[in-house]
Design goal:
- By secondary structure, this protein is mostly helical.
- It is 76% helix and 0% strand.
- It is built from 11 helices and no strands.
């Protein structure tokens, strides 16, 4: 019987070959250096041209516009989430009538710009003022904020319906079959088994939709809603200082980054049982 007398000595790891600089890497480094220099130049410009009087004069307007943006966005997101539920069920229904109607709604609002939808609600429905006054809804459609919230709700509901539908259909069919074999009612199966798994899948797309709505809400400024972008346009029309738009960009960046980190924390919390 043979046996080992000496251990094989440790050997160093093989040397890594140096990566040659290709044209694409050189172009990437050049673009990165360009954007870094551009960002540094903008930062220096803001510091060099700092005007405390403008900040004191228009700062409260920016904060008011920030509140309007957040209120408009999260109101439409909340109402859109409620509206997306029946649309989702209609999209998955075996009824051809419900399926066609829900498909047409989703197709229409996902295939046209949100700015156009806001124009149609604010300016288009204004052409039917006598009819709207007859049903007592003119108080709603004469206000730009309500019209913007209404159009944004219809827009995000179409996207949220598709997000939820895709998430529900991604749950393996074996989950439903297993619940049926245990004799669980369909309502319990959906709310306790299917929907929790679907929401985990839909969590990140929902976060992307909220970020999209925050940035897309800037278009409401064209219908006289003084959100963050509307107040920025007002400040620029009085000062003609391009830094007013830089401050708006900083506000939007801060909102998106705060939401991104918050959403990542929520996702990590809800999916902690999936990590090994």
């Amino acid at each position: 019987m043979s046996h080992i007398l000496d251990m094989i000595p440790a050997r160093p790891a093989p040397p890594t070959s140096a990566r040659a600089l290709s044209g694409s890497r050189i172009l990437g480094y050049a673009l990165l250096a360009f954007w870094t220099l551009l960002g540094a130049a903008l930062l220096w410009s803001m510091i060099a041209n700092w005007d405390s009087d403008k900040i004191m004069r228009y700062g409260p307007r920016y904060l008011n516009g920030l509140w309007t943006t957040l209120a408009l966005t999260f109101t439409s997101i909340f109402l859109g989430a409620i509206l997306s539920l029946p649309v989702t069920f209609a999209r998955m229904s075996k009824s051809k009538v419900l399926n066609i109607i829900s498909y047409g709604y989703v197709y229409l609002f996902r295939s046209t710009p949100m700015l156009l939808q806001i124009f149609l609600v604010y300016y288009g429905l204004g052409s039917f003022r006598p009819q709207i006054e007859a049903v007592g809804l003119w108080w709603f459609f004469r206000e730009a904020w309500y019209c913007a919230a209404f159009a944004m709700t219809l827009n995000t509901a179409a996207y949220q319906a598709e997000i939820l539908r895709g998430a529900i259909q991604s749950v393996p069919r074996g989950q439903t079959e297993g619940a049926a074999s245990l004799g669980l009612p369909k309502s319990v199966t959906f709310w306790k088994i299917i929907l929790p798994q679907a929401l985990i899948v839909a969590l990140r797309p929902y976060g992307n939709e909220i970020i999209f709505m925050i940035k897309g809400s800037a278009v409401v400024a064209v219908v006289t809603v003084l959100d963050l972008m509307g107040q920025t346009r007002y400040a620029f029309s009085r000062t003609f200082d391009y830094q007013t738009y830089l401050w708006a960009a900083i506000f939007y960046l801060a909102i998106v980054e705060t939401l991104r980190h918050t959403w990542a924390a929520i996702e990590a919390r809800l999916t902690r049982h999936l990590k090994r």
